[in-house]
Design brief:
This protein is of the alpha/beta class. The protein has one domain: 3-Layer(aba) Sandwich (Rossmann fold), CATH 3.40.50. Helix content is about 45%, strand content about 15%. The strands form two sheets. Strands 1, 2, 5, 6, 7 and 8 form a six-stranded parallel beta sheet that branches. It has a two-stranded antiparallel ribbon with strand order 3-4. Helix 3 runs parallel beside helix 5 and helix 5 runs parallel beside helix 7.
Length: about 220
């Protein structure tokens, strides 16, 4: 049984009533992957905007295996202390990681964020020395469009993240840098300049699906669902 864990911020946890990119990736793998698999993690809820808390279970498809390690307003800064226990407890084989926007916006600069990403990898491997990690760079959003200094930090962090993936990649525990969806545009693929709408969810799911297929032979090319 292949066990995948999505690790991310508000773009990954999603809000009440949404599918999330996690769902579309699951649907894709149900059709494209020949072996047994599941999604794992210590959390299941969606973010509820009314309560401003992760207390909703109102997924657009209630049959979706919704386990994850994602949180609204959480980044590498928050997930690094949690990942070792989560990987161990849920026996994760593959981590699908989309983090960094929150860190750069509120907590750490590019260098500090990259250091947290490296520590995250070390802690994940402490729990599972053969864990695979697919990591998506920070996607361009409305703040990066409006704030040149923030955009510079995002670009610098993405460069440092790419270097970390090269430095830390091993045969036993491979790392893959997920190419950003080439057609992703915050103007059309989000509902507020940051959080993906259905089209954006598909583009993020496709990015991870293509990385799983091209790097490790899991699934197949993303054809939509």
């Amino acid at each position: 049984m292949l066990r995948l864990m999505a690790v991310g911020d508000s773009m990954t946890i999603g809000s009440a009533g949404q599918h999330t990119w996690r769902y579309w990736l699951w649907r894709h793998l149900c059709a494209a992957y020949g072996g047994p698999f599941t999604l794992v993690g210590p959390r299941e809820a969606l973010h509820d905007p009314a309560a401003d808390a992760p207390v909703s279970y109102a997924y657009a498809d209630p049959d979706f295996p919704r386990a994850h390690l994602a949180g609204w307003g959480e980044g590498w800064h928050h997930m690094t202390p949690l990942v070792q226990d989560a990987v161990r407890a849920h026996r994760a084989d593959v981590l699908l990681v989309s983090l960094g926007l929150i860190d750069l916006g509120f907590y750490t600069n590019a260098e500090q964020t990259a250091a947290n990403a490296r520590e995250f990898v070390a802690r994940a491997r402490a729990a599972n020395p053969r864990v695979h990690l697919a990591v998506l760079p920070v996607l361009h959003n409305v703040r990066a469009e409006a704030d040149a200094s923030f955009a510079e930090q995002v670009a610098h962090f993405n460069e440092l993240l790419a270097k970390a993936v090269v430095d830390l990649d091993t045969a036993a525990s491979p790392l893959a840098l997920v190419p950003p969806p080439p057609a992703y545009d915050f103007r059309t693929d989000t509902h507020d300049g940051t959080h993906p709408n259905t089209e954006g969810e598909h583009r993020m799911a496709a990015a991870f699906a293509e990385a799983l297929w091209e790097e490790w032979g899991v699934g197949g090319p993303y054809e939509g669902v």
